[in-house]
Amino acid sequence: MAAQEDSFLYALSSNNAWAGYKAHQNPNFFPKLASGQSPQILWLGCSDSRCPETTILGLQPGDVFVHRNIANIVSPTDINTSAVIEYAVAHLKVKHVVLCGHSACGGAAAALGDGRVGGVLDTWLTPLKAVRLANKEELDGIKDAGARAVRIAELNVEAGVKVLMANVVVQEAVRERGLEVHGCLFDIGSGRIRDLGFGTRAGKGVSVGGEEVVRGRHAQLVFRGGNASMSVR
Ligand SMILES: [Zn+2]
Questions:
Q1: Has 63 been annotated as catalytic?
Q2: Judging by beta carbons within 10 Å of its beta carbon (0-12, 13-18, 19+), is residue 92 exposed, middle or buried?
Q3: Which end of the chain is more exposed for a tag (fewer CB within 10 A), N or C?
Q4: What is the pTM of this model?
Q5: pLDDT (0 to 100) of residue 215
Q6: 190-206 b/e with 16+ CB inside 10 Å = b?
Q7: Reaction catalysed (predicted)?
Q8: Whole-angstrom distance, CA of residue 35 vs CA of residue 230
Q9: Ligand 1 centroid to residue 62 C-alpha, Å
Q10: Is 3 inside a domain boundary?
Q11: Which candidate, 9, 98, 4, places its Cα nearest to that of 56?
């Protein structure tokens, strides 16, 4: 209990220091932030504490609209995910939807196991268990547990991108204003994000030629040759 209180108090004092630092660095930062948002990226990711999207992208508050849940599952009947997608795509008019899984995902590990997690978790993970069943032979053939978890995470992103591409709000935006949908995987061990090539660029040869630059306030995200990389301006 004491440790929990301490970490909360530490977080509050850390916030205080951060806000002071940001305001000192750029007195207009918070007033500008308070005037509204126009993020270019919708990020759909895992709730895992090691995958904080704005931090790992090297971006800033105001750059990324976010929905995260356990194992970054995109389910068409989940009103929470659907509302976030609709608001980001139809109202904020983001230019990119990024669905990102990650290595060493606890949800993936649970779906690869044969036991019950308990509570509502088994129900939530059902789509991922279906991915496992559909790819049983391939997954069973991967001896290394870490590599197997990465592979099911990739397959999960592929399945999620298919759901996104079938979403009518997404389809309209792709057709009418060139919205792009990306499927990525974050490797926790290296900090790198890999573009898996699913989505609107599927079949267009993601590893050939051009690059797409998404500029945040203080950094930019570059989609190039099947990889996403970040640089600070
Ligand atoms: Zn996860």
A1: no
A2: middle
A3: N
A4: 0.87
A5: 56
A6: eeebbbbbbbbbbeeeb
A7: hydrogencarbonate + H(+) = CO2 + H2O
A8: 26
A9: 24
A10: no
A11: 98
